[in-house]
Write a structure and sequence with these properties.
There is one protein chain. The protein is an alpha/beta fold and 251 residues long. It is built from seven helices and eleven strands.
């Protein structure tokens, strides 16, 4: 048995190479797994489940083919696609997950997050996150016409890119104390997340109990020049893998 984890594909019509890599992933690798977890920022932007663009529908059809064939699909929204809702879930066969969520990964309690809530040093973003995750704010946004939402999304993306270019790298990474706090609160020894675009497996150190269990934080990579995924096997093996976006064969 195999479970796959991906995040931060940032699928967008302007990046056809990444879209093609996603379809290859779903054709070549996903069918060999029992479950696929997508941990946010799957789309570069999502303006609502009522956006009926052919690009979105083609992606959803690929996901639905996976679930129709018996694959289990779990989806957690990120900071780019937080407006994904029940309509998307129904059209793809996905189960939507809260952020954070703890799962039993072959006997090991494992915490899943998108990862943006761990970047507590970025106070400007954290303030926006509170606003964007507000049910009232989302309701008001979704009440706008599709074209108005597209323009709002464009403006928000430009503002984000401009602000990020002025921030120090460490501000946009996770805060160590927050990682430890969340893992201890959730009573887990393993955390899997995306968002930071810094794929790596980290040992998490805590001074609270020097003789306590070893904690691990696994960061999924973004799909820019490479596609990244984490494969978890029933025997406990975890492998963080990548392939070049241009590779025709992933296996």
């Amino acid at each position: 048995m195999t479970t796959l984890f991906i995040s931060d594909l940032h699928l967008d019509q302007s990046r056809p190479d990444v879209t093609l890599a996603f379809h290859r992933f779903m054709q070549q690798l996903a069918p060999k797994s029992d479950a696929l977890y997508i941990l946010g920022d799957f789309f570069e932007v999502w303006i609502g489940d009522d956006d009926d663009s052919e690009f979105n529908h083609a992606i959803m059809r690929t996901l639905k083919s996976f679930t129709d064939a018996g694959g289990k699909l779990y989806f957690m929204v990120g900071n780019r696609d937080f407006l994904i809702g029940s309509g998307f879930a129904q059209m793809t066969g996905a189960t939507l997950l809260e952020d954070p969520t703890v799962i039993d990964l072959y006997g090991t309690p494992t915490l899943l997050m998108h990862g943006d809530s761990l970047c507590t040093l970025d106070t400007e973003y954290m303030a926006f996150r509170v606003q964007a995750r507000s049910a009232d704010w989302q309701k008001q946004l979704l009440a706008q016409p599709i074209e108005a939402r597209r323009e709002i999304a464009r403006q928000l993306r430009e503002k984000s890119q401009s602000m990020n270019s002025l921030k120090a790298e460490d501000i946009m990474d996770v805060t160590g104390d927050e990682v430890v706090s969340v893992m201890q609160q959730q009573k887990v020894e393993r955390l899997i997340h995306g968002h930071t675009h810094r794929p790596e497996r980290h040992a998490v150190t805590t001074t609270a109990d020097a003789n306590g269990p070893t904690l691990e934080r696994i960061v999924l990579g973004d799909w820019h020049q490479h596609l990244w995924w984490l494969a978890a096997e029933i025997d406990g093996t975890l492998v963080l893998e990548s392939r070049a976006i241009t590779a025709q064969q992933l296996l």
